[in-house]
Design brief:
The chain has one helix spanning 78-93; strands spanning 4-7, 10-11, 17-21, 31-32, 51-52, 55-64, 98-103, 109-116, 122-123, 130-139, 144-146, 150-157, 160-163, 178-181, 184-191, 194-198, 201-202, 208-211, 216-218, 232-235, 250-256, 260-267, 270-271. It is mainly beta.
Length: 274
């Protein structure tokens, strides 16, 4: 399968729109924030837990005066069609939401939500029914992600470690996860020094659903009840829990009272680049 890129569903590998160079989408975001310079000390003091900044990319496009299949509509001509394609492309990139989808040669897809960060310059020979354009975009959420989410469910005794094979391949932190705990006592889900703890009982027939993106609590598909936000502990924040693929994608579930407890982790795998 060949590599391709689309913008809001419009393919950029047609006869009217084509990418002359796809390497412009392969940049990765930088860390945000500065280290601390201490007088009388060499170097810098590293400030831990730096977040990632929005990342920039550039699409180098060629636009031709035809339809996507290369044809010219009856009663039109290449020059007239070129200006139509130019206007359509300009409108496409100035939509309120610009979603790029990169289809890799293996058929997998990654997407990024972007916005145009500069004017779109055009290079055109006078009267030619074609032109080149460089579209500067900003990946506002810093990362690319899967088009569809993944999840992994496990039911384990306290202290058991689980390899998150369904999240393998991710290269960027995943903070917008949904955690769903089954019945059990005082569950603590951890990855290294990162953890989320609910310090109370989830009774039989109940679930605790934790949205790490907006700090909301739900009841999942279990019996209705009212989770207690006051018994929650987490580290390092600000999200309730983040999976970090720079270390082993393995988590541990600790709980009290014996027996086994279930947990489901759901979310989009994230990537530093396309």
């Amino acid at each position: 399968m060949s590599e391709s890129l689309s913008v809001n569903g419009v393919q950029l590998d047609s006869r009217c729109y084509s990418l002359s160079d796809i390497s412009g989408i392969m940049g990765s975001p930088a860390r945000r924030g500065e280290n601390i310079v201490i007088p009388g000390r060499d170097g810098e003091l590293v400030r831990p837990n730096k977040r990632y900044d929005a990342s920039d990319l550039v699409l180098k496009l060629s636009v031709s005066g035809s339809l996507a299949d290369g044809s010219i509509p009856s009663g039109s001509d290449p020059e007239r069609e070129f200006f139509k394609r130019r206007d359509e492309l300009t409108s496409l990139f100035n939509a309120s939401t610009v979603v790029l989808v990169h289809t890799l040669p293996d058929g997998s897809q990654r997407q990024a939500v972007c916005e145009v960060r500069d004017v779109i310059p055009w290079e055109r020979v006078k009267a030619a029914p074609s032109a080149d354009a460089s579209v500067a975009l900003r990946v506002v959420g810093a990362f690319w992600s899967d088009v569809t989410p993944v999840s992994q469910t496990f039911t384990v005794a306290s202290g058991t470690s689980v390899n998150l094979t369904n999240f393998a391949g991710a290269t960027a932190p995943m903070s917008d996860l949904v955690l769903t705990f089954g019945a059990g006592n005082n569950p603590t889900l951890s990855q290294g020094n990162r953890f989320f703890k609910y310090g109370a009982v989830i009774s039989s027939g109940r679930q605790l659903q934790v949205n790490c993106a907006d700090w909301s609590l739900g009841i999942g598909t279990g019996t209705a009840w009212s989770p207690n936000r006051a018994v929650i502990e987490y580290n390092p924040g600000p999200n309730y829990f983040t999976l970090d693929p720079s270390v082993s994608l393995s988590v541990s579930l600790v709980h009290t009272g014996g027996g086994s407890m279930s947990c489901t982790i759901s979310g989009y795998r994230k990537y530093l680049t396309s």
